[in-house]
Amino acid sequence: MKNSFAENLKKLRLENGFSQKNLAEKLEISVKTLSHWETGYSEPSIDFILKLATFFEVTTDYLLSD
User: Fold this and answer.
1) Structure confidence by residue, pLDDT tens digits, 23-55
2) Which residues of 24-35 are buried (b: 16+ CB within 10 A; e: fewer)?
3) CA-to-CA separations, 56 to 9, 11, 52, 66, in angstroms, rounded
4) Three-state DSSP class for residue 17
5) Contact call for residues 55 and 44 (beta carbons, < 8 A)
C-alpha cells in the first residue's frame, strides 16, 4: 500500500537538498524517526505535520495527498 505522506516528505527533503541527518537536526528529531516517517513505518503527530508544512512552506494537504 502506498504511503503518500512518506513519499511527499522524502520528495520535499530531497528537493530542498537535505540529507536525513541534516533535516533531522533542523527539526530536532532523530534520524531514526525521520527514516521511519519516510518509509511509512510510523507517522508524526498532527502537531508535527503542521511543523513540517510550515518548515517546507507547503500546505498540510500537500503533505498528506496522493
Assistant:
1) 999 999 999 999 999 999 999 999 999 999 999
2) beebebeeebbe
3) 9, 11, 6, 17
4) coil
5) no
Task: Show contacts of 57-62: CB within 8 Å, 24+ apart.
Answer: 58/12, 62/8
How is residue 22 written as a grid cell?
Answer: 541534516
Cell 505522506 belongs to residue? 5
Evaluate whether 30 touches 24 at the Cβ level (below 8 Å): yes
pTM confidence score: 0.92
Helix axes 31-39, 4-15, angle to 10 degrees: 120
